[in-house]
Amino acid sequence: MNLKPRVKEDPEINLTSLIDVVFLLLIFFMVSTTFERQAALRIDLPEASTEPVPMEDVRRMELIIDPRGRMYLNDRQLVDNQPATIEAALLEFAGEERDIPIMLRADAMTPHHFVVTAMDVTGRLGFSRLSIVTEHRPEQGQ
């Protein structure tokens, strides 16, 4: 009979497999992470003001696009809706000035590509003050 008390060994935790799993997860997340791309277009949002803006002396252009894609610059119809025609009309009106505000007005039924084409032409020419005009129309029965 063995009367000597047994020497108890301290339990040992093997961390090797745990470390391997953590490193594999780290590598997985590093490889699968997508990084956010910064937008190429900088947008300055408008701020409300209590002071009225004098509209008499402000020179501006209004580009209207109807549902059929016909374009009007300051109530004058353009020959067609091609980018070269829009560019020529904007250059004729603005000359060398690029800080003239342009208001882009399109009907809800206007195909989207006409609006994008107009925005692309104004951006290529260097106009930086483009506003998209919207109208709030109450729903029927309200």
Layout of helices and strands:
Elements (H helix, E strand, L loop, with lengths): L15 H17 L28 E5 L5 E3 L2 E2 L5 H12 L7 E5 L5 H14 L4 E4 L9
Helix pairs in contact: 2-3
Please, could you describe this protein's structure?
The chain has 3 helices and 5 strands. Helix 2 (83-94) crosses helix 3. It has helices spanning 16-32, 83-94, 112-125, and strands spanning 61-65, 71-73, 76-77, 102-106, 130-133. It has 142 residues and is α/β, with parallel strands linked by helices. The mean pLDDT is 81. Strands 3-2-1-4-5 form a 5-stranded mixed beta sheet, covered by helices on one side. It has a domain at 61-133: Nucleotidyltransferase, domain 5 (2-Layer Sandwich), CATH 3.30.420.270. The radius of gyration is 32 Å and the shape is rod-shaped.
Overall pLDDT metric: 81
Number of strands: 5
The helix-and-strand class reads: alpha/beta
Name of the CATH architecture of the domain at 61-133: 2-Layer Sandwich
The Cα radius of gyration reads 32 Å
**What is the helix fraction of residues, given as a range?**
25-40%
